[in-house]
Amino acid sequence: MQTILLVFKVLFYSMHFYNNKRIYKLIRKYHTMKIVVISDIHGNLEALNRVLEYIENMEDENRIVCLGDIIGYGPDPAECFKIVESLTDKICLGNHEYAIPEEDFDYQMTMCAREAIRWTRGILGEENSEAISRLPIQIEEDNVLYVHASPDDPMQWKYITNARNAYSSLIEMKHSLCFVGHSHIPGIYAYNELQGDSNKVTLSRDDKTIVNVGSIGQPRDGSPMLSFAVFDDDNWSVEIIRLEYDYQETMAKIEKANLPLFLAERLARGA
Ligand SMILES: [Fe+2]
């Protein structure tokens, strides 16, 4: 009799534990899902791999949204595009992807960008080029907008680099929150005042905020450290993450591919 009771007890507690685990997993899945927002990888495989390593060590459940410019400038555009495509179907069109089928657009780019985009066209492959032609200009999720350049007229490829040029976009913005990249300069710009320090802030759903996540593959704010954002859509907070990576390896690859040397040098300067 005692043995039967013991078996029942073990079964009862096992089921209880199993259900708790399931409930815990469900809560984590639906309430602490972090959104990792990445942008402007620019064919920099070393920087992308460093971000993937970071994501793998994240404690929370997470998913990825990419704001475009996976290609252009860097030496591994095809590899980077394939990796990002395998991680997420939430990928926005960047101006460098836009330039792939639009050869006339080359003349709106700087000389180095033009040279790199012509080289990229040659090695990207048909499958990647087709996938690029299907990318949306923006992705909307409830009250959050993801777009490469700016929420107002995204195809104008406007640069958001400071509070002043963010302001003209904020007044036109229809969503509470918008994530952008494009300028390669990270920053958080709210219509009203922000709470918290500049790298980790709690936002207000009643305010309007633009978060520039910076660039993974070609930072331009004076630091060579790559940049991206982690968004907690439960407590509506955003953190800009900066990481070091082996940019010297990328520089060597740029040189080997005979891409403009300026594109290699700027990685070390973060400019
Ligand atoms: Fe870019």
What does this structure look like?
The protein has helices at 2-31, 45-56, 77-87, 95-98, 111-123, 126-133, 163-172, 247-256, 261-269; strands spanning 34-38, 62-66, 138-141, 144-147, 177-180, 187-190, 195-196, 200-202, 209-212, 226-232, 237-243. The model has no long low-confidence stretch (mean pLDDT 90). It has 271 residues and is α/β, with parallel strands linked by helices. It has a single domain, classed as Metallo-dependent phosphatases (Purple Acid Phosphatase, chain A, domain 2), CATH 3.60.21. A six-stranded mixed beta sheet has the order 2-1-10-11-8-7. Strands 3-4-5-9-6 form a five-stranded mixed beta sheet, covered by helices on one side. It binds fe (ii) ion.
Topology:
Blueprint: H1 2-31, E1 34-38, H2 45-56, E2 62-66, H3 77-87, H4 95-98, H5 111-123, H6 126-133, E3 138-141, E4 144-147, H7 163-172, E5 177-180, E6 187-190, E7 195-196, E8 200-202, E9 209-212, E10 226-232, E11 237-243, H8 247-256, H9 261-269
Parallel strand pairs: 1-2, 4-5, 5-9
Antiparallel strand pairs: 1-10, 3-4, 6-9, 7-8, 8-11, 10-11
